[in-house]
Amino acid sequence: MLAAVVPVQNEExxxxxxxxxLLALPAALIIPVINGSSDLSCKIIHDLRSSQIxxxxxxxxxxxxxxxxxxxxxxxxxxxxxxxxxxGDMDGEIKDNLRELIxxxxxxxxxxxxxxxxxxxxxxxxxxxVKLLHYRRNLNREIGLEQDLGSxxxxxGPHAVSSRFLAQVPLVELAIPPVSLALAAKGGLKVCVGTTxxxxxxxxxxxxxxxxxxxxxxxxxxxxEAICVYRNKKRCRSxxxxxxxxxxxxxxxxxxxxxxxxH
Length: 263
Hints:
By secondary structure, the protein is an alpha/beta fold. It has a single domain (2-262), classed as Alpha-Beta Complex (Spore Coat Polysaccharide Biosynthesis Protein SpsA, Chain A), CATH 3.90.550. Helices cover 41% and strands 14% of the residues. Strands 3-2-1-4-6-5-7 form a 7-stranded mixed sheet, with helices on both faces. Helix 5 packs parallel to helix 9 and helix 8 runs parallel beside helix 9 (209-230).
């Protein structure tokens, strides 16, 4: 059984299209993890009236990526053999790409990622994007997968994982996606790029410069932490001169740990 996990926070403009895309796929279960929403997202999801949709509601914002881990546990408890992760604001025309990710897992891949930068021409990218991709490549090089993955990361774009991945990688680590990638590689799981979706085709709305900087700092810190985990060293989000927090400190890992312990 395929389950799709969809983090949702104030996505009233896009969530209907995102869920309609998933309803057109062979997903037996769709789990929107609605957290910190004050708009009409909940009503829109309810009004779809689909027996395939099983929402989880949190009044508080869970923080970036934490909803993935909570949704993954719910999917695992329902007997999912594969889980697809798709952010609630990704309403692009990506149905065929999602099918490709699912097919890769069905063929035996444990973590199928999306390549969102098929052509990494530095002159076409902002300095911030170049820096971010540098750290993502460094992680993939460290775990021995740069040749296969390039700069692809579970932090960017939809991705799918197998039940074997869910059984082997501690679900709490899905809240820091690069760490889950590092643990998959460390554990000998099969990881690949399953599809290519240029960033602009995802459908996600453009964000301001401050948000972009915080997202980049979050992912860079995640990559540095993942390298520490891969090397069996104490976790650290610093490159020696800068500590990369971004949105990391807003992750409600306390609520995640509580949810995991209760279930």
